[in-house]
Amino acid sequence: IVLAFTLILGVGATIAEPGLTTFVYQVERLAGNRFKMVVLRLWVPVGVALGVTLGVFAIISRLENPMLLIIQLLVVLYPIACILDVYAQSSLVAAAWDSAGVTTGEVTVPLVLSLGAGLARQSGVPGGFGLLGLASVCPIVAALVAGIVLAVRGGDSLRRRDSLPRLVSF
Predict the structure, then answer these.
(1) What is the chain's Cα-based Rg?
(2) Span 89-145, pLDDT tens digits
(3) Angle 137-110-143 (CA atoms, 0-180°, nearest 5)?
(4) Cα-based distances in Å from 41 to 24, 95, 125
(5) Any idea what DSSP says for residue 32?
(6) Whole-angstrom Cα distance, residue 106 to residue 19?
(7) Are 161 and 148 in contact, with CB atoms under 8 Å apart?
(8) Whose CA is closest to 110, among 122, 100, 118?
(9) Which of 45, 84, 103, 154 could join 144 via S-S bond, C-beta 3.0 to 4.6 A?
(10) pTM for the model
């Protein structure tokens, strides 16, 4: 029941986030038809929900050290997001990474932190604040995966069509 509630809370809080609506509108305006906006409208809230649910599962699973599991998830998910960058359209890459900032707004953060702190206290786990990190990385991964899948289903090859971005430009 707790995990189902967490999924619903994650999706609902992110959809209610005023920053997400503004963000998607701005990306639509700037990106034109480079990729389908359903990737951001749907998969960013789903990513937040999955991230928070993973963290809640770690907290309530009665592991000896649930924070270690959350750290391990973060250490694995960020490199996965970086690898997915190579295969996604560059406009989607920028939007996916920016979506992590949108998910840390005035609606999502208080709900996620309160949920983490309350469950951690009830479970006897110190902290519980790794939830916000998972709520930030999972939308990136979800948007990139969804964008790649939609591109492949649309007939695009699984290679990046444009050049890799420069790390430093002068």
Answers:
(1) 17
(2) 877 888 888 888 887 788 888 888 888 888 888 877 776 668 888 888 999 999 899
(3) 25
(4) 7, 11, 34
(5) T
(6) 9
(7) no
(8) 118
(9) 84
(10) 0.81
